[in-house]
Amino acid sequence: MKKLLLAAATLLVCAPALAQTILPTPSAEEGRAPRPARARGVPTALAVEAAQSAIAMCTGQGLKVTALVVDAEGVPIAMISGDGAAAITQRIASGKATTALKMKMTSGEAADRAKTDAAFMAQLMADPAMGTPRQGGVPVMAGSDIIGAIAVSGAPSGAQDEPCAKAGIAKIQDRLH
């Protein structure tokens, strides 16, 4: 219970940065519009646990990172910036998560494909939510369904970010339905 309260407090502290980094404040008209149910995704407590596990692995290697978990529509469920992580890592993590989700592959696989497939690279670059492909975003699966993505950003190389993201998923994978 203490862990969940700490995670909730962390999210509240991060909320202003999340709003500025990921989504703009809704307009008055948007605020009055019907509010459809959220897309399928990782339950909040598990998303926080995955993000914390990813950050812990990177922190153990001396890396200062942000971890982001999004639902099947790319809407943030949990974002935690580790101590000392640069603010821009939040935006980079968002691009990595979006790439993994939309392309249905790790963002590293997308980056590799983009090196040899100009049309694929153009597709990524045409979507401002994805942009330049960077390693560190991984789809989250429940059976054969993609229910979201996790992304880590902040290491000098995406090759260091991706194992941390995968560790976050591994921590919760057996509890995803």
Supply the key terms:
177 residues, alpha+beta, Beta-Lactamase, 4-stranded antiparallel beta sheet, 52% helix, disordered N terminus
Radius of gyration: 16 Å
Strand content: 15-25%
* Cross-sheet strand order for the largest sheet: 2-1-4-3
Question: What name goes with the CATH superfamily?
Answer: Haem-degrading domain
- The parts where pLDDT drops under 50 for at least 5 residues are 1-20
User: What is the level-2 CATH architecture name?
Assistant: 2-Layer Sandwich
Could you tell me how far the N terminus lies from the C terminus, measured between alpha carbons in angstroms? 22 Å
Count of separate structural domains: 1
CATH class: Alpha Beta
How many runs of DSSP E, i.e. beta strands? 4
The string of secondary-structure elements, in order, is HHHEEHHHEEH
The fold-level CATH name is Beta-Lactamase
